[in-house]
Amino acid sequence: MGVLTEGTALSWNEIVPICQVYRSYALSQLVKIFEKCKDYQGDSFLWGDELEFTLVHFDHSNKRVQLLLKAHEILPRLVETNEENHDDTPSIAWHPETCDFMIEGVPCEPYGFLPSYLNTVEANMTLRRKQAQEILSEQSDCEYIINMSAFPRYGQGQFIYSSAHDDLQEVTEQSIHYPDRLISPIHPRMKSSIVNSLARSQGPPLVHIPIFRDTSTPSPFQDLSFKGIKDFRDDHIHLDSILAGWGCCCLQVTFQAQSLTECLQVYDQLLPLTGIMLALSNACPIWRGYLTDIDSRYEVLFQTGDDRTPDERERSTLNSRCSPAPFYLCDEHNHLNDISLDVDENVVSTLTKHGMSSSLAHHFGHLFVRDPLVVIKESLHLEDDTSSYHFDNLNSTVWNSLRFKPPPLDDDRMGWRVEFRPMDIQITDFENASLSVFMALLTRVILTYDLDLTIPISQANENIVRAHHRDSVRHEKFYFRAGDDESSLMTINEIMNGNDKFAGLIPLIEKYLNESENINSDTRVTVGHYLSLISKRAAGILLTDASWIRQFVMSHPAYKQDSVVSDEIQYDLMWKITQIANGHDTCPLLIQTRMKTNTHLNPE
Known about the structure:
alpha+beta, 9-stranded mixed beta sheet, 604 residues
């Protein structure tokens, strides 16, 4: 989501002359944050999740489902609902997202350190969908809020449902498939983010996704709407818009540490897991109505979020603004930062003079080579020296797989935080809660048993590449460090469930839980089911969402073995997903029927 500030957004031509001034403000604020908060100790372990939802409209008579551009209508109602909430039901913070068919829901209050909070996550996720669904159902019985990482026919045919016509309007991108009316009309900075990214990169992105080759897929397959353009590739789907990536939905989890030192430790130990958890959460095998050879949204994000200039793209020392985490942050892991990246040496020098460690200073030195993508005119020259607006804005417009989040200057309630960002959103609340709770417990295991999972950055990046591959959980091996040994290639089953050299992350979590004295029976049963889901998915007994979606399409009677996902197939798939998510149908390939939880909105 990032920093949402209303006001007059500057154009790229207006931003260019003030980039250095803006960065100087941000650096000054970062120094103040560090000096104020570097010695914080004893902050409570707090954590939370962010879910991005998709709004859809079903036309049952014609067997069609389309994206519903209605977020701008229901968001004010959702905000009002939670402002008027005076009982003990948890309040939800609702926010706009990039596209008008997306909304983000976040608990207003973070989950606490007590184990009983683990048994509230799923109920809270269900509450979020329930609040939005009740508003949608007031006007239509055909409109739904769903958990869907990438809408299958997004960018293909008549994929938008709206009473509004795409009349004369300003064109942001010269896109063949993604019209401007997809963009949220109420997101304070999204339109300017897109316009400025396009201006800085000097043109729209062109993403290439390899087609899944089935028995009747044409050879070569050609994406004919792009035939004749530069960089056209046979046997690939093409996406030509920032919205193709920014219209995807994800699950993010944020953890607040007790101190800066602990936060750096958690960050470094979670970094090697970004590719592992990406593979386990894969949910995107279909792009623009075709089965493809990838299973995740993340590579599409890397390419559509890339605002580098043509000259910058020629350098290997600057990645896309959306990319894997670039550095470890603890000095003892600096030798594993084996990829050379641009840094602003003046920023590094300034920060180290104020006592910041070398590795952390280099992390920020790399952040500060970025230009600000969004500048609000009214907030450019702030007179309030208690605000960290410029730094927070710069930090929140670089979308790495992990985000290191210092406390804001104007909120003493927040501590040092790590945001874990790679996971695709899952079809059901149960799956999303399973992944979220697993990650929360893993941070406790890392700190309790002082695990060292670090591997070279180059290997962590390779894991993310491998995670995209079709059915990567069952068919790929990933770099992982088991015990004191150097990293080696292991299956996700070995990483999660163990082998003769490594106990496995899930057995380590089980050990931690068994040693905990204050976990109640309901919570223990719930967490047991969550861990069982991940264990069985890692072992290949249960499918990832991407594998199940692919299997559903390929077994559909209307599928012609040509890689095409028709409107009819999409309709049946999306209705099945809606029924499963709302408890009206089951799917034993995703969740075993015995995996029943008794979750509560409030901790016991």
